[in-house]
Give the backbone structure.
Amino acid sequence: MLLYSAALTALLATVPSFITPAAAELTSKRGLVYTPNSTTLSDDKIWVEKPTSLTWYYNYKPDPSSAFNEIPQSDFEFVPMLWGAPPSLDDTSFLSTVKGLIKDKGINITNVLSFNEPDGPYSYGGSNMDPAAAARIWVNNLIPLQEMGVRVGLPACTGAPSGIPWLKNFLGECSKLVSTEGKTKNCTFDFVTIHWYGNFDGLASHMGEYSATFPNKTMWITEYNLNHQDLQATQAFYKTSAEYFDRLDFVERYSLFGAFRSDVSNVGPNGAMLSANGSLTDIGAWYLGRQATGILPTDGSLVAEVDGDTTKALNGLEAGCERVLLTDEDNTRIRRKTDKKILTILIWVYFLQVLDKIVLGLSVIFGLREDTHLTGNQYSVVAAIAPAAQLAWQPFSSILIVKVRHRILMPVMILGWGLAQVCTPTCHNFAGLLANRFFLGLFEAGCLPLFSIITAQWYRRSEQPVRVAVWYSSCGLAMIVAALLSFGLGHIHSGPLAGWQWIFLVTGLLTIVTVPFIYWKLDDDVSSARFLTRDERAQALERLRANQTGAGTRELRWYQVGEMFLDIKCYLFAAISLAISLGAHVVSTFGPLILRSFGFDHYQVTLLNIPMGALQSIIIFLVAWVATRTRWKSLTLLSILALIITGLVLLFALPRDNSHVPGLLVGYYFLAFLLGCNNLTVSWILANTAGQTKKSAMMALFNAAASVGGIVGPLLFKENDAPVYRAGLRSTMVKAEGRQWQAGTYSRPHSMEDKYVDMRAENAGGVGEKAFADLTDRENDEFVKRTPCRKSETPFSRASTRDPSILRVGDDYYIATSTFEWYPGIQIHHSQDLVNWELAIRPLNRKNQLDMRGDPDSCGVWAPCLTHDGEKFWLVYTDVKRKDGSFKDAHNYIVSAPSIEGPWSDPFYINSSGFDPSLFHDDDGRKWFVNMLWDHRRRPLLFAGIALQEFDHKTGKLVGPRKNIYQGTELALIEAPHLYKRNGWYYLLTAEGGTGYEHACTLARSRDIWGPYETHPQKHILTSKDHPHAAIQRAGHGDIVDTPDGRTYLVHLMGRPTTQFRRCVLGRETGIQEAYWGEDDWLYVKNSPVPNLFVELPAARDEDKYWAEHRYTFDAGLHKDFQWLRTPEPERIFNTNGGKLTLIGRESVGSWFEQALVARRQTHFSLDAETVIDFSPTDERQFAGLTAYYCRYNFFYLTVTAHSDGQRELLIMASEVSFPNGELTISEPVHIPKQGKVKLALTIRGEGTTVLLRVGRRGID
């Protein structure tokens, strides 16, 4: 058989086994979550047709639904709901409505539901309520109903961790309202109400939390489902949960959220109780107490098949309660789609806005001042009135940005300033021009704040500086276009309109015709983006989680405005904005006049603005790139200001004669750097401000300061100073020097913020659960300021790089990791920057070093330790022959080499007393061997401690006494020891808690290598065990390295779960954390003990190399990316003769001895792999193909084989969590021609695996 590409290893998500139909069962607990659809009203009768288990319903409203008016309340009870906050906190309309139902209509209302997901944002269906406000509404509306004997349910919070804390705050606020002087009272409720979207284990755990928090209360589960899972998993969830609810006495009622058709379902088609054509699915029939229908949810739909591992939809992101799988490929795709739609709109509209401003400065040299009879400083006043209007309107602008949909607000603004621009030619005097420019400024007031908010709402913080630069760079383009338009239209000397009037008319009309296009294309926010699919909207929100700045809200929170005025950075940003705006008018308003003072005519002046525009665009991008690359915004700004001041000095000092024109032009063009200041500051604000209202207010203040500069700036340039305007230039120089001081001082308060964030983030495990709440940067203790000196880069993490041991020799770093049963043994990666790593060698490549035939899955090479003693490299490793039962056959060896490339020596056998050995080179020349001790007797534990013994490198043997020097902490399972020496202390770093979700790094130290060892005051310097929602889990098994400049890092074992099921699709990986030595001589991990997903590292990742496509050929033998299983005799299972990979059939897939499997590791969450095979089997015992392989109990195998009659066919053989029997599930065969090449393909998208196949054809190679 000829294989032209890769077999591929991957850890696969599990799929539940086949579900048998549930028996029909009637119960009085079940209710209907009624969500009517006007296009399918006939579906309403399905829920009340006999037989039915449904005895009650709610519709999120206080009034019953007309669809069920004919049914008595005793047969189908209506339960009113107070969904959210009424228009006024003192509003009692809900109370009045329910009283009317009881007294006027005679409806026996015995239960009511209160606030729907008050801890969740509007965008996910939550009512987004403040606990104090909710308490006041409760007291006004629900306590009177309780006094009438109506039972009231506690508000139904989301399934997020924020739910119970919200309820506690709510009850506390409610108690304050009902308590009297000297007597504390509590608000009462009759039952708790629960919402849940996720698996059954999570649901049961969530209910347990409520039982513990609110003991002796019955429960109503009023919304629940397993959203966006395959049909079998969803049916299994329904059966298990329904049986659970029916069995538990304290579950009073429950209602499955799924009473709609599958094609409109927002919990995935399989969660719906109706098919796409309106028929009851199995779940729908079971829920009504009927027999299964056998109808698929997709019957009648355009979709014939549903991927069971589709990414979680928007509901699953409620206030951070469930994470959505977001691969790097997904992130890139969504970012590009956002750029194409949103960024394009921002570029075009900002271009128009700047164009409308610039033409004023150009039109003045084409007769505007003369035709409108402006005298004295009236032109300066006209230039200042638009900023004055913007200043006056800023408070209202910030409110509108929060309260009005952006799809409405932006077109209205554009239309307003477009009309003002079109009307400018009708102005013939100072008063008319003043009024016109006032209204233009009014409508442009919200432009910069709105654009900044939109950028922050759609992009990650790391992406924002470049995106701001992109749309802000349209300033330069606008100057070029304005110059060309003015040059062309300025030549019009006949007709009813002058050249300057044509300029305003054309630019105004261009603006107006844009309005319908913007309304058509712009979306309000991520959650409603029409250019993204539903799954992509969920992923787009997930990718913004790390911003910690919320998902956007229409609620105005005045306390955030107050917080802004107490925040020192708002004044610093405002001061910088004021100074920038003062200088900007040198170019925009008086630039053409200053150019004329050089001796150019008005046409030449117009053309000279073209290079100015080009320079502005280039500088904006350059500044953004430098600031993003270096992360030194202050230093970047200082550098820019130095160039601006240089330009101003040249303009101020040089005489206006022909010999100095080149120097004057250089000075003028240096002012292009002014545009780089603004976009840098805007991105700075966006990255460091959270809370929708606070951010809007901050941008409004920034714009207000710019408006003040716009008012004052033109007034600095007096008519009696024309045409040189030295006084104005001198004033601008002074302000620029002030900007330098502001930029320099900004890093000082920010460094205090850094310290503040580090302390508060001590218990934050990466990205947290408050990401989408409308919290300010001070409220959200998971918000990390983007400081001028911070570098946040992705940690080193390659799939299946486990049990890391790190070493630095000179400027070269090496990491050795376990390879288990894969051959050759041990992977050593090389880097010079701790970020970009390349596989250097797999040194255990011959039989006398390693023979793993017969080693069970996940045995073989464990936990290597790579060290260097100043002369050569030493590599310690374990070959594990058995891992189950009381015994561990774990043999420890040492090899050495003069260089990392080898040659690596034959091994010294050391011992078999335990695993995870390491070698320590003391500064006196002695070498010490440590390993964990395995005690099969359990006296007292299997993991008995850490053994120390001296190693004689000349004889290759252990010598002298052995001592158990450290037994660890109560977390137990101690392993992975590494010894270090620093400042007279011996430090012992170990792992504890096992390699699962209790994993941890534990540090101890002693003045004597033999001990006793004292444990670190934190015990565990790195762990995620107490933070189940941290982005990095299973953190432990670490090693320490120092950089040449004295910085310290800890590499560690880790996993990245992709869903609430905590599956780590890429297996165990290697992460890196920044650490530091404290004054107490203990090592601390930054923000410890929880690992950070983003870490300050010396360099950036090479994105091109990281995302590069790999196409393998075999002309030069087997590529280093590939490995095989166990055997040191690869010639028995494959060869690459003739430039083709030929596999030699041996034992079956999953064999622990000889199976012909050649594979490379999966290193990305999503991938596509293809191979072409040439194979002609003769019976069913011969097969070959492409596999996604983890071990004998977990793999998918797309294989070419033959039936017993010789008919060649394709099969999918799957072993899905089949331990201990390893039984296969085999698909129906697909017949293919007996001869010919076959192309096989494998697509992996996060948890989902899709196997694609295509039959070979002529010409394939």
User: Anything to note?
Assistant: Residues 328-363 form the longest helix (36 residues).
